[in-house]
Amino acid sequence: MMPTILIIEDNQQNMYMLSYLLTQNNYNIIKAFNGLDGLKLAHENNPEIILIDIQLPDMDGYEICNKLRHNGLPKNTTIIAVTSYAMGGDKEKAIEAGADGYLEKPINPETFVGQMQSIINAKL
Prior knowledge:
Number of strands: 5
Radius of gyration: 13 Å
Helix content: 40-55%
Strand content: 15-25%
CATH superfamily: Response regulator
Shape: globular
Largest sheet: 5 strands, parallel
CATH topology: Rossmann fold
Number of domains: 1
CATH class: Alpha Beta
C-alpha cells in the first residue's frame, strides 16, 4: 500500500497538479486548503508525508511545520515545503521550522515525484 500524503495548499491549480501527479503514482491524497484544516487533518490521519505551501491565508507554512513537529506528530513523518519562496535563506528557514526538505514552485511534473522520493529516502 502506498503512503498517504497530506497536501496543504491554498491554490486550486497547484492542488490539482500535485494531487494528479501523486494519484498517478498510487499515493493516497488528503487535501487541506489552509493551515488550520491541515493541522486538524494531520492529527486525525497521521499521513506519512505532508507537503506544505509556505504562503497560506491563515498561517504560514513555517508556523504549521513548527506546530506539527511539536504537537505529537509521529517523528517519522516527512514534511516537505513546496513553495514559490525562493529567496536566500528560505530553505534554511523551512528546515529550521521542521521541514525535512524544500521544493521550489513551479514544480516540474516530470521530476517532482522523484525529487519528493529523494527527500523521503534521505530521511530513512
